[in-house]
Amino acid sequence: MNNFRKAKALLTALLTSAVALGAQIPSASAEEYVLENPDILTLFGDVNFDGSVGLADAVQLNKFLLAENGDLGNWKNADIAEDGTIDVFDLIYLRRQLLGEKPPVGGTLNINVADMMTGELLEGADITISGVIGQSSFPLGSFHFDPEDEITIHGLPTSDKYKYVLEIKNLPDNYGNRFGGWDHSLKIGFDEDSDTKDVTVRMVSDETELNIDGGCFDWTKGNADTSYGLFTVTNKDGEIFYQNIRANDFALPDGDYHIDLKRDTEYPLTFLDLDSEFAKYLADVYPDETFTDQSKGIDITVKDGKPDKDVFFDFGPIDNFSNKITINCFDADTYELVEGAELTVIEAPDAYAKKIADVVTNADDIITIDSLYRAGDNAYKVIVNKVPEGYIAPDEVTISSYNITNATNEIIIPLIPEEKAEEVTVKVHNISNNKEVDGIGVKIYDMDNNLFAEVKSGEPFVLTDGGYTAEIDSDNAAEKNFQALSLIRSVETFDPKYTWWTQNHGTSMFKVSGGIPDHSIDLYIADADTTAEELENYVKELYPTANMD
User: Fold this and answer.
1) 491-528: per-residue pLDDT in tens?
2) Same-domain status, 523 and 490
3) Cα 234–Cα 235–Cα 239 angle in degrees, nearest 5
4) Structural domain boundaries enclosing 272
């Protein structure tokens, strides 16, 4: 016989042997499958591209080689020998693989689901597995995990270009809140020079104590934050215990671990550089703190349920970034700079309260202080120690700075001529009992939204002519067990006409002319535990003609 007839006879024998296995072989055709990209290897032997390897794939490959069907679902999957040619040797290997005479080509993925702390296998999780290469993805099947039978997939490409995503659904009871990232998924790949990947999906019971304190620490603001990145936790053998969880507290059994942080923030921050000017600044401000290089992660040991250290990643500003402040001390009537005001600048007045400078204003230039690294609320305070004769000034002015971005923050200190000063009072009403409350912090802003003064309700203060906004200091109100409210007034009459309120925010706009406000400055609070329904009832009682739309 010629070579073609020999090949055809061999193929016929192979097909006959496949039938003898006792399986029903369905009709298979590439047209039966929706192919996103038939030129990408997804699963060795999955000729018809249906996500599994079986007798239907042998039939499809047989028909192709016999020229009975000119199409393959995925020719890359059919090239089992990986020689760039689809021939009888691919079919021979596939048949022997189906008969159990040859191991599957490609990598093997073994998956178990276990309790994080005990390692006990858990039943009840459904796992959907997909492959990813570049911008393309392909399904590999959905499985229900049984502790007596781990999930195994053969024939996977092992190149580092391929990643495999495990999406876990229907988590076991009491394991629903602390697994993985927000999407309950893991992304893995094969290790170099290894054709087997063993993966244990570890879940934390809702009742498990979180024994590891973790997070990110923003040293520009002096506080911890969980929104700066995502933790990946592996043991000393590289096994994944957590992947892409929010940087927060978590649980681990005894063992040695490595924690990496993937930055996930738009803030202009980076890992603390021990050689930076900011690090030198921290050493001066926090002399008792010890800082280490964390750019390559943090290693910890857990013994008897206790870690040898907390897992906090230190953040500072981008290299060479700092802020500056300018101090504009002016006559509130003429807006000309005033000479001779004596001021003290304090950094972080609510924390370490470091004196930055003592300055005296002049009539020629505003004051500029640079190379500043504090951000956040009340980053700096200017204390007014002395003002020229004939002026009234606020005792102090604070300023907040959102981030360290080489920004310039302006501090406005208006000096009010005594002969122009008129006393103004802000009234704060507790809507829960319709009584005035004195001593609530109130911030006064000018029309450019610059902080003009900080006062207390019920205490007189002075303002020059102009437009202003009074706003309740919501933090101060909360400290006194109140919540700030906004009750909207009719612009024409300034009679209280309720339309809506917003919690934790109370403002009132007004205009001062001839030293006298154009209307009573009224702000509103409620008891901290007041419900929305109670608020609505209080408003209806106080203002029965209010617009409720």
Assistant:
1) 333 444 334 444 444 678 888 876 678 888 888 888 98
2) yes
3) 65
4) 209-321
DSSP string for 380-443:
EEEEEEE--TTEE--SEEEEEES--SS-EEEEEEEEEEGGG--EE-EEEEETTTTEE--S-EEE
- Domain boundary, last residue among 270, 297, 321: 321
Q: Total structural domains in the chain? A: 3
d(CA 366, CA 301): 54
**Do 361 and 457 belong to one domain?**
no
Whole-angstrom distance, CA of residue 411 vs CA of residue 325: 7
CA 26 to chain centre: 49
84 by DSSP, 3-state: which?
coil
Q: Is residue 129 part of a domain?
A: no
**CATH number of the domain to which 215 belongs:** 2.60.40
Is the same domain home to 439 and 522? yes
pTM of the shown model:
0.70
Span 363-389, pLDDT tens digits: 999 999 999 999 998 899 999 999 999
Distance in angstroms (rounded) separating the CA atoms of residues 24 and 38: 26
Furthest C-alpha separation in the chain? 121
In the DSSP assignment, the letter for residue 190 is P
